[in-house]
Amino acid sequence: MSSRTFFVGGNWKMNGDKKSLGDLITTLNTASLNDETEVVCGAPTVYLDFARSNLDARIGVAAQNCYKVAKGAFTGEISPVMIKDCGVEWVILGHSERRHVFGESDELIGQKVAHALESGLGVIACIGEKLEEREAGTTEEVVYTQTQVIADNVKDWSKVVLAYEPVWAIGTGKTASPEQAQEVHEKLREWMRANVSEAVADSVRIIYGGSVTGANCKELGSQNDVDGFLVGGASLKPEFVDIINARA
Ligand code: PGA
């Protein structure tokens, strides 16, 4: 096992209300969580303050998106300074739903990554290929291109977690096999070694996302280059505790 701190992010997406998220928060606050694992919950924008005020301090909070500048006439957007003002320290950027449902380009995602980091947020930067890209044998090309744009916008990698999330595995119940996940994670780490630095390749957390559950997390989490998870559906359920404790 590596010395990288295991990182488990929950991505609540556009789900829940104060009642159900409050119940989930109570479950997390009172659960026995592996204290060697870093845990962050991605809350909907309107619940960031609620999540930060109610979650135990040992659990981090993330916004699910933000814009590329600090303020201005950008109706509907939020900025990193606002996120920080709510006591929230992370943001998820480049999620496949932002890329493919809302049409965010690599360029925009890169600008957002740069601005979020300059503003002092930690960034969970997501990449991943679509099914047709995997079937066409272009997985590496796709994830390297996405990672290059992110890398071009990062100065301090200690504030970045890279989330490999194959689009075909997100919300589909079709998890990448531990071998498939390990293969891409290892290649990404080698890409980092060749294109960023030896030190960053060794230290950056590369987490897996896509239909992670309490049932499959232990095997996925035991792969050498899988340093944690970004969890959607299962992060809204008590089984999220089992996922946090995957390496316990
Ligand atoms: P899922 O979502 O766990 O529901 O597949 C993962 C994600 O989108 O981060």
- Listing every helix as H and every strand as E from the N terminus to the C terminus, the arrangement reads EHEHEHEHHEHHEHHEHEH
Percent range of helical residues? 25-40%
Report the uncertain regions. Answer: none
What value does the Rg take, in angstroms? 17 Å
What structural class do you assign from the helix and strand content? alpha/beta
What profile does the largest beta sheet have?
8 strands, parallel, barrel
The overall strand count is 8
Distinct small molecules bound, one entry per kind: 2-phosphoglycolic acid
Q: State mean pLDDT (0 to 100 scale).
A: 97
Q: Total helix count?
A: 11
Instruction: Tell me the β content.
Output: 15-25%
Strand numbers in spatial order across the main sheet: 1-2-3-4-5-6-7-8
Overall outline: globular
Task: Report how far the terminal alpha carbons are from each other.
Answer: 13 Å
What does this protein structure show overall?
By secondary structure, this protein is an alpha/beta fold. Helices cover 39% and strands 17% of the residues. The chain is globular and about 45 Å long. The two termini are 13 Å apart. The mean pLDDT is 97. The structure holds 2-phosphoglycolic acid.
List keywords for this structure.
248 residues, alpha/beta, eight-stranded parallel beta barrel, 8 strands, binds 2-phosphoglycolic acid
SSE order and pairing:
Layout (H helix, E strand, L loop, with lengths): L5 E6 L6 H13 L6 E6 L5 H7 L4 E5 L16 H6 L4 E4 L2 H5 L5 H13 L3 E6 L3 H5 L3 H13 L8 E5 L13 H18 L2 H6 L1 E5 L7 H5 L6 E4 L8 H5 L4
Parallel strand pairs: 1-2, 1-8, 2-3, 3-4, 4-5, 5-6, 6-7, 7-8
Helix pairs in contact: 5-7, 7-8
This protein binds 2-phosphoglycolic acid.
Pfam families: TIM
GO molecular function: methylglyoxal synthase activity; triose-phosphate isomerase activity
Organism: Coregonus suidteri
